[in-house]
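pls design
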């Protein structure tokens, strides 16, 4: 079992940038893939970006070319660099690993 804590959300204007962090603790040696999911108001939680243990990544079509997921295995931390943010990116962003979820961090993008 792992515990996940997200940070880095906030309010930003369209075109701005944020970097989210997710720190893992507990049985971290069991973690392979880690993902970032976004849940906009009134919508289902959806995969935004995913990174496997070997470093390969996947992105949703909506964020390709704007967001970058990365991980620092020494720090048990995964990051989401969010550039050129759009109002449509407004959501609570959750980190996921081994079926565990963090508490989420709010990202709000104003027009």
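designed seq:
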């Amino acid at each position: 079992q792992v515990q996940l804590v997200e940070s880095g959300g906030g309010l930003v204007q369209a075109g701005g940038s944020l970097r989210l962090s997710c720190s893992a603790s507990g049985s971290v040696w069991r973690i392979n893939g880690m993902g970032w999911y976004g849940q906009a108001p009134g919508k289902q939680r959806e995969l935004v970006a995913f990174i496997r243990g070997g470093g390969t990544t996947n992105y949703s079509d909506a964020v390709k070319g704007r967001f970058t997921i990365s991980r620092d295995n020494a720090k048990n931390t995964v990051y989401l660099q969010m550039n050129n943010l759009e109002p449509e990116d407004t959501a609570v962003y959750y980190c996921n690993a081994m079926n565990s979820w963090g508490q989420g961090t709010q990202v709000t993008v104003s027009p």
